[in-house]
């Protein structure tokens, strides 16, 4: 049996995401890895935040969470002009980011096997309407439906 275009589109619908947890905190995930890449490219947390269309405070909180989760800080900062300081990955930050990206690549390379195909076959293209919304649509309007007393 040959796969058609719809089957091929469905094969790409299941996405795997790696999140490394430190207690309840996400120590590393795709967004945090992207933020680290942006810090490397921009040289500052504020520049990385702008490049990612993110508020500075959000970026700073993500960096703070990463620095608190790992044995060594991943991002080192130095005071700079006005509000914008320099930031760079520490040696630990570079190691963690490189290993995380390698783990992502390994998962991507192995994710096209039978297990992923089986899960993908079970997955809907779009989620169903939540039960509460579906129930509201199917029930008669207040006062307009038949009486419960009959």
UniProtKB/TrEMBL annotation:
Residues 126-150 are annotated as: Disordered. Gene3D superfamilies: Winged helix-like DNA-binding domain superfamily/Winged helix DNA-binding domain. It comes from the Bacteria. InterPro entries: Molybdate_resp_trans_reg (IPR051815), WH-like_DNA-bd_sf (IPR036388), WH_DNA-bd_sf (IPR036390). This is Molybdate transport system regulatory protein. It comes from Novosphingobium chloroacetimidivorans.
